[in-house]
Write a structure and sequence with these properties.
elongated, 4 helices, mainly alpha, about 0% strand
Length: about 80
Amino acid sequence: MIVNLYEVVNSYRHVNPSLVEQTRDILPALDAESVVDDKKYDLFSDVYVFGDSISDIGNAFDITKKINGEGLPPAPPYFRERFS
């Protein structure tokens, strides 16, 4: 499976920030028991997170290296293949 990071990032550009704020305000009113369904967690064996240096441990670099033969972002100038 080939993952196009450009398409993944662009798929989130339409998200309206005000909707995110509204959702954050609603969450405390929800009953956690009704939201969580433990059976759904069995569907995933791994979770890969792409983001800043706190959450990205080099996954973006590894994927682009497999696809292109050269990892992005290059080091130097980026610190240990991380954007931030």
